[in-house]
Design a protein that fits this description.
Helices cover 79% and strands 0% of the residues. The protein has 280 residues and is mainly alpha-helical. The chain has two domains: 2-86, Alpha Horseshoe (Serine Threonine Protein Phosphatase 5, Tetratricopeptide repeat); 101-279, Alpha Horseshoe (Leucine-rich Repeat Variant). Helix 1 packs parallel to helix 3. This is Tetratricopeptide repeat protein 12. Keywords: TPR repeat.
């Protein structure tokens, strides 16, 4: 009988009926108070309802019942932490924006200007440099960038895309490429949600693995800095491994054996971090 309740709970979650899912899980637990599926589905439903404490308790209960599920539960608890952090960031960012704080208003204003299509590369390059600094100067800048459609505005811009995919060797285009990479590094530094969103941008996934082989030293440095950022934490490493063509990336990184000592050390750290993630 418990399987009927847990199966229906799973269906309810897919339909967005989280309260109903929790109710079915509770009935399943009345049939079997050690039903792991019930606790897992209930934890997911509570997470969707932003009831983080209850969600954590459900997932922790799984380990109490079956210690061998520790790795799975750890992943679920990480999801809860990330979602709670994301919500907190966005609440604080909206409060700061609603207060009319100058630094908070600047980020959306700059994004609006950068949304203008068909401008010359130096227009976007200058705008991105100013935007990057504005985000650095604002405590909620990273979140405001996300809330104001920043990822879409930047990644869907044809001029920006052309620079990232290196369809031209024009110096202005290469400078724009560097500016975009700097921006991405700033908005992703210490921000798990932004790291996740950037990895969903097709132009990022398509370009980053190849840009590391560019002859332009500034492009190389920014690519390595961004990859290094992702490689430092488990969440970032998993995002990179799951979304990038790791075989091509590793092959391209191996070309740095003839580069400067600093670059070789950076590449070595990146490869070592990714290898460690694969072993876990």
């Amino acid at each position: 009988m418990q399987s009927l309740y847990t199966n229906r709970a799973q269906a309810y979650i897919k339909m967005g009926k989280y309260v109903e899912a929790i109710s079915d899980c509770e009935w399943a637990l009345k049939c079997n108070d050690k039903c792991i599926k019930a606790y897992v589905h209930m934890g997911k439903a509570y997470l969707e309802l932003k009831q983080y404490h209850e969600s954590r308790n459900c997932f922790k209960k799984v380990v109490e019942i079956e210690p061998g599920k520790e790795k799975m539960v750890k992943e679920y608890l990480t999801q809860v932490d990330l979602e709670e952090e994301r919500e907190s960031q966005e609440i604080n960012a909206r409060k700061e924006f609603d207060k009319g704080e100058g630094k908070a208003i600047t980020v959306p204003q700059l994004l609006e200007k950068l949304s203008k299509p068909c401008q010359m590369p130096f227009y976007y390059c200058g705008g991105l440099e100013i935007l990057t600094q504005a985000i650095s100067d604002c405590t909620t800048g990273q979140t405001l960038f996300r809330l104001n459609n920043g990822f879409s505005i930047i990644s869907s811009n044809d001029t920006v895309r052309s620079s990232l995919l290196q369809k031209t060797k024009d110096p202005n285009s290469q400078e724009l490429c560097v500016s975009v990479l700097k921006l991405w590094r700033v908005i992703c530094c210490g921000n798990d949600e932004n790291q996740k969103i950037l990895m969903t941008c097709p132009v990022f996934r398509q370009s980053i693995v190849h840009l590391v082989t560019m002859e332009n030293v500034a492009v190389q440095q920014e690519c390595l800095a961004l990859l290094c950022l992702y490689s430092k934490m488990p969440h970032g490493r998993r995002l990179a491994i799951d979304n990038l063509n790791v075989q091509i990336l590793v092959r391209n990184l191996m070309t740095y054996t003839s580069k400067s000592k600093k670059q070789k050390n950076t590449v070595g750290n990146i490869l070592e971090n990714f290898a460690a993630e694969n072993r876990t």
